[in-house]
Design brief:
Layout (H helix, E strand, L loop, with lengths): L1 H7 L6 E6 L6 H15 L4 E5 L16 E3 L4 H10 L2 E7 L1 H11 L6 E6 L8 H10 L5 E4 L1
Parallel strand pairs: 1-2, 1-4, 2-3, 4-5, 5-6
């Protein structure tokens, strides 16, 4: 267990960017807040980006400066990922997963993760096709 603790505090720890559409009062949104807070408390450099100003759960972040509201722009996500020197981008829910995958193509050496939170969504054909095409560079998708 000691080597893991030492790695968590190492200066070369990868920067992690969690991306979600908004921080409203949903389960995925609360999961992002819990994950960010837990990882920050362990010494990891974690940030969260949203594509909407709807962020009522932002007040629960242990470090509010880690929140970045991008207003729906994949170009803003690319800029943020490059500025933070992000090494892991983790998208939550369909829209964010697609945008994370698109942004990752413009960033170097980024591990892309996805996170499906429900199997009951009824996506349109164009959404399923876009997801399939854009997520080819996703290394792992976590299903909850």
């Amino acid at each position: 267990m000691q080597p893991v603790a030492a790695e968590l505090n190492a200066p070369q720890v990868a920067r992690i960017l969690l991306v979600i559409g908004d921080l409203g009062f949903g389960g995925a949104e609360r999961g992002v807040i819990t994950l960010v807070n837990g990882l920050v408390k362990r010494g990891l450099d974690v940030h969260v980006a949203t594509f909407s100003g709807l962020v009522p759960l932002a007040s629960e972040l242990v470090e509010p400066s880690r929140l970045h509201v991008l207003r729906g722009s994949v170009l803003a996500l690319i800029h943020l990922a490059r500025t933070l020197q992000t090494r892991v981008m983790h998208g939550f829910l369909l829209d964010a997963e697609i945008l994370v995958c698109l942004a990752a193509w413009a960033c170097k050496d980024v591990v892309v993760l996805g996170s499906e939170r429900s199997s009951r969504h009824h996506y349109r054909l164009w959404q399923r096709l876009l997801y399939r095409l854009s997520t080819q560079n996703m290394q792992l998708c976590i299903a909850n």
